[in-house]
Structure formats: C-alpha cells, structure tokens
Design goal:
By secondary structure, this protein is of the alpha+beta class. Helices cover 26% and strands 30% of the residues. It contains 18 helices and 53 strands. The chain has a nine-stranded antiparallel sheet, with helices on one face. The chain has a six-stranded antiparallel sheet with strand order 3-2-5-10-7-8, covered by helices on one side. The chain has a six-stranded antiparallel sheet with strand order 31-30-36-43-42-39, with no helix packed on it. A hairpin with a 2-residue loop joins strand 25 and strand 26. Helix 4 packs antiparallel against helix 5 and helix 7 packs across helix 8.
Length: 1004
C-alpha cells in the first residue's frame, strides 16, 4: 500500500506542476506598458495620472529602494474570449520573490477614474476585469520597498534608512499579461490541493487515507492532460464523494477569521503602512464581492483613519461592508500597542480614542481586544480591558516562548487587582495562517482544552502588505466546513468565536499575574531615545490636561480638545508594538524622535499658557506641582511658592581612599574608582552596601543574541561582561543645598560621566549618568547590590506594581531574567526596603548574589547597540537619571518615581492657585484630571489604590461641583450620580487593592 501511495502521489505531483498549473489560464496576451518614476516620496493618483509616461520594456529593472514607479497597462481583449466558464484577468509580476509576503515590492491597481481595483503581491498577482471588458487601461502604483530581512534578523543592512539605501533599481518587471482564467480548472486545483494535504496528514492505516488516495487516482484517470479544461469537470466529480464525507462528530471546530496583520510601522515607515492598508483592504473588498460568506477583521483605528484621510472612496466601501457585518473593526485600540512600557493612562487612551473612532465612523463597539503580536502583557491589563468594555483578549505571541509552554489556549486571565478576562491563544501558533492542512491539523492537535472545550480561532491571511486572505484560502474554508478527518472550519468574526467559546467553556482555568513573553527581552531597552520620548510625552500630557482643566474651570479658558486629541493620537501611534519597543528600522525611530520633539514644544506652550492664565502676571517665583505628592511644600495640583529648603547637616570630605558625603540621615563613601562602597543609614544604624560588592557599577556586556538582534537579550550575555573601571577624573562639588561627586570614565569608544548628589535630610541618593555611547552589539547595565534579604522584587507597572520572585526555583523563574518596571523597583524585608527609581529606562534584572540570600542585586539596563534592523541604534549621547531610595516604603518608591518623572514647572507669576481636587486616602493616587471626551465640560478624575491594600478614598472637588458619577474608563456611567451641595462637599468610597476608579464631576 505504501508503494501504491507513493506512486499515486508522485503522479499527482507531476500533474499539478507540469500540466494543471499551465492550464489554469487558457490563453494569454501581453499588455503594452509605460512607466513614470516618482522623483521622491509617493504622490496621489491625481498627480500620477497627469505625469508623462514613457514606453517600458518588460524584463527591465526599475525601482530604487523606497521608490515608487507608476506603470500604465493597456491592451485589447480578444473577442474569442467571451465564453462560458472562463474569466478574463490581468496577471502582473512586478518582480516578486517566492517568499516573504509583505517584505518586497507591492502594487496598487487603479482604473483611469482613480478608483482602486485591488492590489498585487507575490501570492496575489491577478486583477479581475468586468465581464463586458473590451479594452484594458490600468495604472499600477508599484512600491519598490527593499527586503530589510534579506540578510536575516541579525545582520546589519543599510536599506532601513532612505539616506543609505542606495539608488540602484531593486526589481525587474517580469510580466503584465491579459489572461483567461478557466474557472473549472482552478476549482479542480483547489479540490486536489485540499485533499492531498489532508491525505498526507493521516496515518497510513486509516481507511480515510485510502479513500482519498483512490479518489485522487480516479480523478487523474479521468482528466486528459491534452484537454484539461474539457475534462476538469469529470475529474472533480470523481473527487466529490471524498470531499463530501462529513466530519467526525467530535471534530475540532475552527473559527476562521480573515485577517491581515499589518504592523503600523516596522521594516517600513508609517507612510508605507498607509499604502499597505489600502492595498490589503482593496483585496478584501474584492473577495467580499465574489464570496458572500467571507468575513474579515482588522484592528487599529489609526489604520482606518489613514484610509479615511488618504483613500476616502475606499474608506466608503469599507464602511458599507462594516454595516453589513462582514468587515469587522476589532480590538478597539488606536493601534496594536505595546502593553509593558505604555503608561496606565495611555493604555486607557488607546481604547478611548480607538473606540471613539469606531463608534463615530461605524456606530459599533468591539468587546474583544485583538493583540496577536504584542510582546507580553502587563498584569494591569485585565482590569483596564474590563473598564473599557473589552473583557476578551486574543493574542498569539506567547507561543514564541523560548523556555516554557503556556498551559492553556482558552482561559481566564486574572490581573493584579483580581479582574479577569476571557483569553484565547490560537493553537495553530500563527496569526498569518494560509489554512494549509498541516496548520488546521496542528490547531486541533495542540488545543490544550480538548475534552472540556472544542473551539479555537485561526486568523488567516498574509500580513504586512502581503495582501491578506486569498481566494485560495477561501476555497479551503468552503471545502473544510464539514470534511471527514479534518477540523470543521467556518467563516467567523472574533465576536462569534468568543460568544461560542465562552458559552461552551463556562469554567475555564485561571492564569494570574502578567503574561510574560520568554523572548524579545531586549525590547525593554532598544532605541532609548524613543522610550525617552514616550515617557516624557506621557507626563507632559498629564500636566497639560491638569493645568488646562484647572484653567478652564477656574478662569474660563477654552479647553484645547482637538489639539490634545491630535497629540494623544500621535503618542498612541508611537506606542505601536514595533515602535516603542525599538524593533523598527532607523527611519521609523528618527521620525518618532522628530514627532516627540514637536509634541514637547506644543505641550509646553499649552502648559505655560494655562499657568499664566491661572496665576496672572507677577514676579513671584512659583512652582506648579502636578505630582500626586507634595513637592517642596507645594500641595499636589497646586501652584505656590516653594517652602524653605530642608535644613540639616551636610558635609563633603575627601580622603586618600575616596570621598565621604554626609547628611543627618546618610553617610556615603565613594572610592577612587567612583564606586559607591558604603551607604550607612544613620537612623536605622544599618549598612546598605555589601562588603566587596560596590554599587554604582557600570558593566558593558557582549550582546549577541542568537536570532533577533534588536529584540532579544539571551542569557549567555552574562558570560562576557567588563566593569567600566577606568576613571579619567573624579571631582567633588558643593552647591547651596547639595554636595556631590562627578566621575568621568571611558571604556572602548564610549565615555561616561556620572554625577552623584546628596541633599540635606534626604534619604535619596540622586545619580545622573551621561553617556556618549559608541559601542556595537553591547549591553550597558548599572548595578546596585544591596544588603536586603528579599524573596521577591516589586516593580511598578500601570496603576500599581507586580511582585516577581527573585529566586530561580522553576524554569518559569529562570526565564524571567530581564523584566519591565516603569518608574521604580523595590526590594525589601518586612521592616526595611530599598528602591531604585529612574526617569527613562524600563529593562531591569534583579537577582540574589550570595549563597545566603542576604544580598539583592538591582540592575537597570541602560543601553543596547543592536545592528538589525537599525545599525545606528542608540549611538550618541544619552542622559539617564536614577535615585537610590534608602529605607524605602512602597509609598516612598512612588514618590521618588514621580519626582524624577513629573515635569517641574517654575515660573514667575502672581497669585497662588489651590488644587482643583483633593484626594485623601492611604495609598490612593490621583492619576489624571481632564475634561470629558464628549466636550460637556464635566471634569474627569481617575484615581487608583497604589499599595495593594483596601483603602477608603475621599474626593473633594474645590469648585462648583453638583454631582459625581462613577464611570467606566470610557467615561460612561456605571453607578448613580451622587449629589453635592452645602452639606455634602466630598464623596467617600472603598477601593479594593489596585482598583482604578474614574469619576465624572459635573460643574455648575
């Protein structure tokens, strides 16, 4: 039987390759081609149609890197082609390679009236023609995008930057033909493909396998290679019984969601993403025209907004299909963002802006979060998702784990506050399936909930400009709806899947805490300037909204709704999961830096305009404090003169061995290497720095990951580290209220200047590390070993913190060797802790360094220098601030983090300004003050419990407030309004650990 199978399949292989492939099209005619190369950046169709085209010879090279060439194709349709069972198409080969959908040339095909017909890509080369076509006249906008991955994901390439990509043409326009599709032959090809793929997956002893083999053999007997078109129907009839046998009753059910994962920027700039969206969506619309069952889902409101702005006609067609329920805007976010480094308020705004756009444009709201490719998930996410009305999550990336396999595919994911959302990982382990038989079988085989549940989702379609689903994929779904020995496959939307999956699986297992991706740990550090821009933009937006709201309520200054919306949307775009993580080409990151600089300028203008309106003119030196904590005796949310500087003893003494800095709380010793060798806590009579393990140590590690340069930090980096010891100079200084040491170092081609300072009566040690970084494939860490016996480390995340074990008892612990923290990390014993705060970094590693567990090593990962996809990543100057907080509670860790990050506004003005809101409660922090999104003038206040305790919160509006309503994060009421008046001037409520509460306060 085995030899018989080999014989039949060999016969099938030759038939498909040598005869069937050449018979799908019955005839072909070359088209006349003219070309116009765009001098620089892409132009609109209206400009291209007016350009001067010149004759172009097929087989010629075209297209410099990142260039655009417009081709005009013309020809006449032979009259003999008007026949039943055939269909005329134009088939174009712009020089496509056989692989890498989306990472090469792409084309958008227009009719002469400017409407987009569809796109052409390497797996999707045809253009349909109306049945009454007599003459062909098409324009093709061909993008000659370079394949940045041509050398893999580790070797540097110059093509990721337009300035270094070169000018030589990349592609050869091979063919532009008018072809006659034989529909029955094409259908036969699909029948044979689906059955042969299924056959190959079945055990040799299974009778079903023999049935399929005999059907294929019978079909091959009936088809005549000299007349395939004339005998295809007979061959298909021979396959009909094999294709019509119903699936097993227990067959797995696959909900096939048409999809095209389009990175909003990655190995191309955002301007190219705009065109990729248009190409893919036009393909999708074409498939909807020919297949009424086809359903497609696409996330990212930003991409729809681009379509509306640049391709309004195409956007109108999408809107029509959305209203039919076949084109599904899913996810509800502005972009598919990172979730580890994005601030808490920004994560909420991803949904606030995304859902607002979908509601305004389409009148619908998605209840699913769609983040298939995001690099792990913060433990704060379930609560945020529930608060924005999206209690379901689809992701796939954790199937990439390098150490441990996630134990579930459908489960409840519980966050740090106890909120849970239904979560699904597609067991096919891909979000770009082509629905081949092996992927369908893999989904069924791997589904971990088998026996309790029987449904999974499979997103299918070529992403990133590969064109999305194809007609061949749709043919597969139709043939596997109910096919023996195959999973049942059905067209579906994300909501249809989640509705069915939740109904089927009433008590799924629970995963608690973060969803840590055991891969791509380097994205917490790569492209430091992009991360700086994000952190500062988030804090400046917080300040802008606070002071603009105060100015509106107190002084009647118009609130800058549209300006803030535009800025927020730009910041949200740059939080995309390949921009903020630093895994894009240099073009993308340089563009992000320019945007961040413009955002800072614009927000500072708004802030100082609001502050000026609030205080009036004057010559008093005022401080505007937007932090949730008092700063220099200025209350949170207030504007006032600062109090007197803290008094107390402060001294600086140089010795032969180093420098001693001292106040009435701490005594610091810095040796001649610039290392912090002693931090003595006078109040607790406790030495913090372990003997022979100094702190403030910079170490440069060799950083050569196995597979993904900008993405990964592999554990072997620890084997090759060199401490930066060389000190060119060590200087002391004393200013009013400060003493310190400045250390200048050099290592390799890089230089480092560290400024370490101590203030009177302070238990905080401030450090600024200025770096001129000129290394390649290196990793820079700043180390602080401390004498603290800690079992776990607390790291700030959105709206709280997460505790992670320091030990490595399990493979899960060992794999978590590089972790994210926002503004601080904290390690502690029950009555004593140490925190390390930062102003711009996210990557940290925390470990025990002695056998007794008495010493905890805290390291900030400051810089990397990967060379792919951006060979210039992180080169140049950086300035990073850190604060070591001695005898630190969690509250003091928060306070230090805000002190480093909240922008400080000192200016000359007139009157003091009291806070607009007062929030009282142990561990309760006021995160956001803004005006309501609906422009009603209502004040929105977002608070949260920060310490992981139960707390009583009291909120006192200091303005003419009439009601306070608890809302969801999208500012929609979830509780009845509370009336305020003379007798009730504040509201009080209970918060559970890490609870976020949003309040809508109506003004008189």
């Amino acid at each position: 039987m085995h030899n018989d199978s080999v014989r039949v399949l060999g016969r099938l292989r030759r038939f498909r390759q040598e005869f069937l492939a050449d018979s799908v099209y019955a005839d072909a005619e070359n088209l006349d081609v003219e070309a116009w190369e765009v001098p620089d950046e892409p132009v609109a169709f209206e400009d291209a149609i007016l350009a001067d085209y010149e004759p172009f010879e097929l087989g010629s090279a075209y297209g410099k890197p990142w260039g655009t060439t417009w081709f005009r194709l013309r020809g006449d349709l032979p009259k003999s082609w008007q026949a039943e069972g055939v269909r005329a198409e134009v088939v174009i080969d712009l020089g496509f390679g056989s692989t890498n959908a989306g990472f090469q040339c792409e084309g958008t095909v227009y009719s002469p009236d400017g409407s987009i017909i569809k796109a052409v890509e390497n797996y999707n080369r045809y253009v349909p023609l109306p049945s009454d076509t007599e003459q062909v006249d098409l324009l093709v906008e061909a993008a000659s995008n370079p394949d940045v991955t041509a050398l893999g994901f580790t070797r540097p390439t110059p093509v990721g930057d337009k300035a270094t990509a070169g000018k030589e043409p990349l592609y050869v326009f091979r063919s532009a033909e008018l072809k006659l599709l034989n529909v029955e032959v094409w259908e036969l090809e699909q029948d044979l493909r689906v059955l042969s793929e299924l056959h190959d997956l079945l055990p040799a002893t299974l009778p079903r396998r023999a049935v399929i083999l005999r059907a294929i053999e019978d079909a091959l007997d009936l088809v005549d290679v000299d007349d395939i078109a004339g005998t295809a129907r007979s061959a298909r009839q021979a396959l009909a019984n094999a294709l019509g046998a119903p699936a097993y009753a227990s067959a797995h059910e696959l909900y096939a969601v048409g999809h095209a994962h389009i990175d909003s920027a990655w190995l191309w700039p955002t301007r190219e993403t705009v065109r990729k969206v248009a190409r893919t969506f036009s393909n999708v619309l074409h498939l909807m025209d020919i297949d009424p069952d086809f359903v497609f889902a696409a996330s990212s409101a930003q991409q729809y907004a681009w379509l509306k702005e640049h391709y309004p006609h195409l956007f109108g067609r999408v809107r029509e299909r959305v209203h039919e329920g076949r084109f599904i805007p899913t996810g509800g976010m502005w972009v598919e963002s990172d979730t580890n480094m994005v601030g808490g308020e920004a994560l909420i705004r991803q949904f606030l802006e995304g859902k607002a756009f979908f509601l305004e444009e389409f009148g619908l709201e998605s209840t699913e979060v769609w983040l298939p490719d995001t690099f792990g998930f913060t433990g704060a996410f379930p609560q945020i998702a529930r608060l924005v009305g999206s209690p379901r999550l689809l992701t796939q990336k954790l199937s990439w784990n390098d150490t441990n396999i996630m134990p579930h595919h459908s489960f409840q994911w519980r966050g740090i506050d106890g909120s849970a959302i239904f979560t699904h990982f597609p067991p096919a382990d891909t979000y770009n399936s082509d629905l081949r038989g092996s992927e369908l079988a893999k989904a069924e085989r791997q589904f971990k909930e088998s026996g309790r549940a029987n449904r999974s989702l499979i997103p299918y379609g070529y992403g990133d400009g590969g064109g999305g689903p194809t007609r061949e994929m749709l043919a597969t779904v139709h043939r596997t709806r109910d096919l023996e020995a195959s999973p049942r496959v059905r067209f579906a939307s994300p909501q249809q899947f989640f509705d069915a999956a939740e109904a089927e699986y009433a008590q799924p297992p629970t995963w608690s805490g973060e969803l840590y991706l055991e891969l791509h740990r380097g994205v917490l550090t790569s492209q430091h300037r992009t991360k700086v821009g994000n952190r500062r933009s988030e804090h400046l937006l917080h300040a802008t909204e606070l002071w603009a709201t105060t100015a509106t309520v107190r002084k009647g200054v118009p609130y800058p709704y549209e300006q803030l919306k535009r800025i927020w949307r730009m910041v949200l775009l740059q939080q995309f999961h390949d921009i903020l993580p630093g895994s894009s080409i240099g073009w993308v990151h340089r563009e992000a830096e320019r945007h961040y600089a413009a955002i800072e300028t614009e927000l500072l203008d708004l802030i100082y305009s609001s502050l000026s309106a609030l205080t009036g003119p004057g010559d008093r030196n005022l401080l505007a404090n937007g932090s949730p904590f008092a700063v220099d005796s200025v209350a949170s949310g207030a504007i006032s003169s600062t109090g007197e500087p803290a008094g107390g003893r402060l001294s600086l003494k140089e010795t032969p061995d180093g420098v001693v800095l001292e106040n009435d709380q701490l005594r610091l010793v810095i040796d001649r290497r610039g290392f912090l060798v002693s931090v003595f806590d006078k109040h607790k009579q406790r030495e913090i720095i372990p003997r022979d393990q100094p702190a403030n140590v910079l170490t440069v590690y060799r950083d050569i990951p196995n597979d993904w340069d900008a993405w990964d930090i592999d554990p072997h980096y620890r084997r090759n580290g060199q401490v930066v010891v060389n000190v060119e100079s060590l200087e002391t200084f004393a200013t009013e209220g400060r003493v310190g040491v400045r250390i200048h170092r050099r290592w390799g081609a890089s230089s480092f200047t560290q400024t370490l300072e101590l203030s009177p009566s302070s238990r905080d040690i401030d450090l600024v590390t200025d770096i001129d970084w000129r290394e390649r494939r290196k990793l820079l860490k700043l180390a602080f070993p401390v004498r603290v016996h800690a079992q776990a480390a607390s790291s700030e995340i959105q709206f709280g913190y997460i505790n992670r074990p320091i030990n490595t008892n399990t493979s899960w612990d060992a794999a978590r060797y590089e972790t994210v923290a926002h503004r601080w990390v904290h390690v502690g014993e029950p009555d004593y802790g140490v925190a390390l705060a930062n102003d711009t970094t996210y990557g940290h590693s925390i470990s025990q360094t002695d056998d007794d567990g008495e010493i905890t090593l805290i390291e900030q990962t400051l810089l990397r220098s990967p060379m792919m996809p951006d060979p210039e990543a992180d080169q140049g100057e950086h300035s990073i601030r850190s604060t070591l907080v001695v005898d630190a509670s969690l509250t003091r860790a928060y306070e230090a983090g805000y002190r480093l990050n909240a922008p400080r506004f000192e200016f000359d003005g007139g009157a003091d300004v009291a806070p607009l809101l007062e929030v009282v409660g142990q561990g309760v922090l006021l995160e956001t003050v803004k005006l309501a999104q609906d422009e009603s003038g209502d004040v929105i206040a977002r608070i949260y419990e920060s310490l992981g305790n139960r707390a009583t919160a009291r909120v006192r509006p200091a303005f003419g407030a009439t009601t306070v309503t608890v809302t969801d994060a999208l500012e929609r009421p979830i509780e009845s309004a509370i009336q305020l008046g003379r007798e009730t001037t504040e509201i009080e409520f209970q918060l559970h650990p890490f609870e976020i509460r949003t309040l809508r306060i109506r003004t008189r």
